[in-house]
Amino acid sequence: MDSTSSPSSSSPFDLVSRALGEYIPHSGPAAAVSAAAAQSESAAQPPSGTSLVAGDPEQILGAVNLDRDLRVTRSNLEAPAFAGMTAEPGRLFADLLPSGDVPTVTRRLRQVLETGEAHVARVQRLRRDDGTELVVSMSILPAAGPQDALTVSLIAMAKRLHLYASETAIGTSLDIGETAQSLAQSLMAWGDVAAVDLDYAVWTGEAVTEQAQQRIRLRRAALVPDRAWPDGYLTPGDNLPGEASRLLSLAVRRGDVAQAVVIPDRGTIERVLRDPRLVRALVPGDRPASVACIPLVLEGLDGEPPVVLGMAEVWRRPDRPFQDGELLDLQELVARTAHHVDLARQHQREHAQVLALQRRLLPRAGGDTIEVASVYQPTTPDSAGVGGDWVNSFPLPGGRTALVVGDVVGHGLGAAAAMGQLSMEARALLSAGLGPEEVLEHLDETVTILDDTDSGLAAGYSALGSTCCIAVYDPVSHQVVVSSAGHLPPILVLPDGTGRPLSIPAHPGLGAEFALREPFDVHSFDAPPGSLLALYTDGLVEDPAVPIDEGIGRLAAAVSRVHPWDDLPQAARGVVADLAPESLRDDVTLLLARMAGCRRRDTAAWRLPARDDAAVRARALTAGLLEQWGTRDDTRYTAMLLVSELVTNAVRFATGPVTVRLIRAGHSLLCEVGDTGNGRPRLGRVGLLDDRGRGLQVVHRLTTRWGVRWTDTGKVVWAELAR
User: Fold this and answer.
1) CB 241 within 8 A of CB 233
2) Which residues have a Cβ under 8 Å from the Cβ of 693 and sit 6 or more positions away?
3) What sign results for the dihedral spanned by CA atoms 317, 323, 329, 333?
4) Which DSSP symbol is given to 71?
5) What is the mean pLDDT of the segment spanning 517-538?
6) Secondary structure class of 588 (helix, strand, coil)
7) With CB atoms counted within 10 Å of each terminal CB, which end of the chain scores lower, N or C?
């Protein structure tokens, strides 16, 4: 021992050293029986009832003293478990650690040094001189004497205790990659290299039901230690060759019993694998090696045979053969953690489903009058799944475009189901001709229904307080009509580059029954050609360190920097990259819409008195305009007949003046006839002797689609033709 302190010393290092002196005989450490170790093991007794043998030589105490530069000043590592580990005075303590653990452990050492508060019982790996590793329980204590700074107490953990510590660590994440990595790190207590290979279906979240002999697709999920490997060796993300997958699947499953398989030396491995390419892919380097393959098994239900989710492989030098007790420990650890892998698989499946639904709702490309681009970034899988942000854009009658963004409360499938329902309902109601404020009234009622006692409470999920903003762009009038339910205001950037949030009074979110129920307001804003509109969710602008108004201002500044000729999808990604925090606390959603509008020469509108000659006048005006536009003869005659029928119906069944508007956009010709009536035209069956309803039959047969939308003064019947 390096300790020379007087017996009266009360420093932590000397206390540990005296304890070591009491149970390490001078005749040699091999026969050590530790009362202190027995006491420590009894204190760490796992709750499951598995007994640890007092005096187990695997559980041994050691101590290292450090100065303020974190260099070793004294050490006591004479116990058998620490053989091959050199802690000479003057050596950095970081030299005893795996390279990947140095930053974390160094940070904890300095934290104890600065605060004086001990850090107790951290499971840690130490690196021996030959590169192998030892798992210990490490405590960091402030030293009492001025010559030293820290005392690091080390307990070489017994394999049985390591089983329980590993199971606890592996179950802390629902990310399948992190779960596999935690398992591989725990397996390092038994070897020099550990790898975890999972069935491909586990990665995608699919239900794994087939038998191992019928599955040959394995993917490397984790590999430790993390360092440079020879070319051709499989690293995380690589698929195992089909021959290797088939060989391993057959090797670990004999009958209905999953069991470990040990290949004791490199020669045997090469004879089994046969193909040099497989040897390079599966054997970590050119040195001698042996391997234990342990199947990752999920026990079957109701008498079904167990299912192999994948494979864990532990490699080490052949001069340290695997003992039967070690194989049992390995099998127990892998068996105990199989359900964690399956939970991560189920979470991956839910995450993929929600993400697929969310991306399905993302808007497609815009039309001739508007260009749209969107970005959606979910939070990490560990944040309880994808959130309820959604954004959509779609064409409306009259050449208009709807831009919708919403944020449903919560994460996971409950939020995804509510998100999908609200999104589809908003699209259906807007397409049916309702205004944005009317659509929000229906969504408000829907959210309340979703949260009733039969569905919402039973599912443990509430959508109350969800937000939504609807903007409708009219390319003819160059106006944007906006209505919002508790959502952050859109940002409008005019062609001169000035950008500002739209002034929309605050309104409670959807289903907010606790607040005073007020009608949803509708607001109109001018959007000249070249304007840019940004709709977003709070994840893009919310930062606990700054007010929300400042975040919105930064977004307005970022959107204002988008040049009119910039590629819009690339610009949207750039805005998100500039503003989104590195560690996402919430989903980030952004929709950019660049509005081009209709050219004045592509539209025409007339206002006609509701008289019997209105249809004749409308036909004449339509014929002259379409001839000026160079429309084909058949399209011109069809449009004249269509306008005549719509105007006749308006004069016959409504009151007040009749408006006629024609719009050419792309390959379509849009005809609109408006009146002040509130009756809805309905298409029905017409008998041979009926003199009513034939006009709508003609409209239905002549057009690609037609419908009705409501205005402040009445209604508009629209119809679309291919030109």
Assistant:
1) no
2) 683, 684, 686
3) positive
4) B
5) 88
6) strand
7) N
Q: Is the pTM for the entire model greater than 0.70?
A: no
Distance from C-alpha of 218 to C-alpha of 310, rounded to nearest angstrom: 7
Task: Return all residues near 398 (Cβ < 8 A) that are at least 6 apart.
Answer: 474, 476, 663, 670, 672, 709, 716, 718
Residues 189-208 have a mean pLDDT of 75
In the numeric block, the tokens 């379409």 are attached to 626
Under a CB-based contact definition with an 8 Å cutoff, are residues 495 and 389 in contact? no
- Rounded CA-CA distance 671/587 in Å is 41
**Digit-coded pLDDT (tens) for 274-315:** 778 888 888 888 778 888 888 887 765 565 666 677 888 888
Q: What is the pLDDT of residues 76-111, one digit of tens each?
A: 888 777 888 888 888 999 888 887 788 888 888 888
Q: Is 229 helix (H, G, I), strand (E, B) or coil?
A: coil
Give the whole-angstrom CA distance, residue 709 versus residue 617.
24
138 touches 118 (CB < 8 A): no
pLDDT score, position 656: 79
Amino acid letter, residue 281: A
How far, rounded to the nearest angstrom, does the alpha carbon of residue 252 sit from its chain's CA centroid?
Answer: 34
Q: Rounded to whole angstroms, how far apart are CA atoms 715 and 655? A: 11
As a residue count, the chain comes to 723
What are φ and ψ of residue 693, in 5° steps? Answer: 90, -5
Nearest CA among 501, 499, 495 for reference residue 565 = 495
Confidence of residue 514 (pLDDT cuts 50, 70, 90): low
> Which string of DSSP letters, residue by residue, matches 313-370?
EEEE-TTSPPPHHHHHHHHHHHHHHHHHHHHHHHHHHHHHHHHHHHHHTS-----SSE
The sign of the CA dihedral 129, 133, 135, 138 is positive
8 Å CB contact between 441 and 425: no
719, 697 contact by CB (below 8 A):
no
Indicate whether 696 pLDDT > 60. Answer: yes
Q: 159-170 vs 176-187: helix axis angle to the nearest 10?
A: 170
**Do 399 and 665 touch, CB atoms closer than 8 A?**
yes
Q: Which residues of 703-713 are buried (b: 16+ CB within 10 A; e: fewer)?
A: beebbebeeee
Name the strand (E) or helix (H) holding 491: strand 491-493
Name the strand (E) or helix (H) holding 151: strand 150-156
Q: Is 368 left (phi over 0), alpha (psi -120 to 50) or beta?
A: alpha
Residue with tokens 């009317």: 438
Q: From CA 253, how far away is CA 259, in angstroms rounded?
A: 7
Is 709 within 8 Å of 398 (Cβ atoms)?
yes
The whole-angstrom separation of Cα 311 and Cα 253 is 11
Do 415 and 466 touch, CB atoms closer than 8 A? Answer: no
Measured distance CA(382)–CA(82) in Å, rounded = 37
Structural Rg of the chain based on CA atoms: 36
Q: Which residues on neighbouring strands pair with residue 526, listed in sequence order?
A: 479
The H helix count followed by the E strand count for the chain is 18, 27
Q: What is the mean pLDDT of residues 485-497?
A: 91
Average pLDDT over residues 238-247: 72
Q: What single-letter amino acid sits at 54?
A: A
